[in-house]
Amino acid sequence: MKPRVLEILKKLMAFDTVSSESNMALIEYVRDLLLTQGIESLIVKDASGKKANLFASTGPEVRPGVLLSGHTDVVPAAGQAWTFPPFAATVQDGRIYGRGSCDMKGFIALAIDAMLDAAHHTLNRPLQLALSHDEEIGCVGVRRLLDVLHLAPMRPFLCVVGEPTNMQFVLGHKGKGSYRTYCRGLEAHSSLAPRSVNAIHVACDFIAALRESQQQLQRHGAQDSDYDVPYSTVHVGQIVGGKALNIVPNLCTLDFEVRNLPADNLDQFLEQLRERAEVIVQEAKNSPAWPPSRSKPSTPIPASIRTPALKRCVFSSSSPRLIPARPRSRSAPKAGCSSSAWTCRWWCAGRVPSSRRTSPTSLSRSVRWTPARHSCTACSAL
Question: How many helices (H) and strands (E) in the chain?
Fold first, then answer.
């Protein structure tokens, strides 16, 4: 590798251009570097002004050029076991290690070097450079650049996209569709989980449908052996849901993508998926819904077991038995217990050695409790 290429690559890899971050520092570095050889650049910013595309050209302006295209953003490196610093170019055993060395700052460094060399030669066609942002999250940035280049008097004669392909020419690409699904449920305390609708469970049912669709595409969908994976693929990349362990979640979102062969009808696939989603929704609606109970208990509440809504436990040295928690107040709850801070709970206390009676760990291992038939609004805090 030429020393200048390695120097440029080290500079490029030092910029943290994960898709969630700005790439302006990298774009400005490339612009200034090209300007040292008299090559001017067109900077096309996004709406926020924090990210930008770059287009540059050297050579005759009257003929279509050869365009070298690459994206400046990289996928995240956080939470991964890197042997070398991810945002640095580490040379070892003839290889360069770091985030983006292959995809695709290595190509960008070579393209910049070619532009700098071309500035000193007489070219039959212009050599052009296009750098985009946010390719990794759906080719978002290049769209605005394409809108600008569409107004240019001449379009490129040839475009080379420097994605890693083991130095083999790749003439095709699968289509891609990215989608977000919202799964809504019915929130409740986890003690009433069977009487609620868990949004995460609904999302899991939908994910199962996606996996079934993947199997159908693999077995019965179009096939093209020119691709490493010769069939269309479905992939769930992110799922978010839930607020706390003791709350049945009422919302869960998941992001999935489809990378389809041209012969597979993506619209038809999505329509089938919507039909499957409707079935899942109906199944969820047929589950026993949990209405907040405001009714009075069916039997009187003995004063001896009334206690404020606090997590407490009474241990017994005798054989396991159900005993009430000790009351902290003699005052009675309001009628129906619908708006008071009282709850009726039976605690199941087992034999616990004295050395472990104050240990929360032993509590979780040795003690179970069963709620009484009546519970009030304050119970949701437990």
Answer: 7, 17
Ramachandran class of 334: left when φ > 0, alpha when ψ lies in -120 to 50, beta otherwise = beta
Residues in the chain: 382
267 part of the active site: no
In degrees, rounded to 5, the angle at the alpha carbon of residue 187 between the alpha carbons of residues 181 and 190 is 120
User: Please, which pLDDT band fits residue 289 given cuts at 50, 70 and 90?
Assistant: low
| Helices 105-118/3-14 angle, 10° precision | 130
Active site residue 134: no
Does pTM top 0.70 for this prediction? no
- Cα separation, 104 vs 353, whole angstroms: 63
Give the tokens for residue 283: 């199944």
Q: Which of 16, 134, 135, 264 is catalytic?
A: 135
Catalytic residue among 16, 73, 113, 134: 73
Half-sphere exposure of 177 (CA within 13 A, CB side): 17
| Distances from the Cα of 47 to the Cα of 29, 40, 44, 130, 144, angstroms | 21, 23, 10, 19, 10
The amino acid at residue 6 is L
Angstrom distance (rounded) from CA 239 to CA 256: 9
Q: How far apart (Å, rounded) are the C-alpha atoms in residues 205 and 278? A: 11
With cut-offs at 50, 70 and 90, classify the pLDDT of residue 47. very high
> Is 122 exposed, middle or buried (CB count within 10 Å of its CB: 0-12, 13-18, 19+)?
exposed
Q: DSSP string of 112-138?
A: HHHHHHHTTS--SS-EEEEEES--TTT
SS3 308: strand
